[in-house]
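FIELD: query
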Amino acid sequence: ELIDVIQANSAKMISQIRNREIYCMQENFKKSALNVNRIRDKFGISIVVPTEFKYVKEADNFIWLKKDITSGNTNIAIYQVPLNFVMPKSDVVNNVVRIRDSVAALYIHGAAEGTVMITEKSYSPYLFKTKIDGKRAFEIRGTWELDRNMAGPFVNYTVIDSVNNRALIIEGFCHIPAKHKRDLMIELEAIIKSTKFNSK
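FIELD: result
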């Protein structure tokens, strides 16, 4: 009977454990958080980012943060596009992939000349509906590659900000070859889910 109860409620149990883990991470981030005034001023949001992350690149509608770790790095990219770039809902995944590849072509390059980060075409990204700070959002998970020698997972949250007629996109991705990436991706998810939109 106990096994039956666990199997029947496994999805809910996993979700609660994951949400609690994210909450604990967010509380820990607050003890030593990066100054995010540049993000607030550019995008009208607050977000709790650990101080280990550093600003790598900034443009009109783009900010890239990176944390170097042993044998690799984790990254947060924040950017915004007009809302009609993402909708209609029937083609959200392809629209978001097209946007992220275009943004990466502008800002996220490899060491070799002409190499840029792209969404891996061998595997279709997964789409989930969710909310960020009460706003409707699309969570897209997939893998990226760069120069065929670098690859890794990404999680992309595209938030529908109808009031400002924009889609705010916050993405986490990591590169750490031959090592488990689960905890790193949970950390990126926790950072992204700390996002709060300014009232104005």
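FIELD: remark
The chain has a mean pLDDT of 92.
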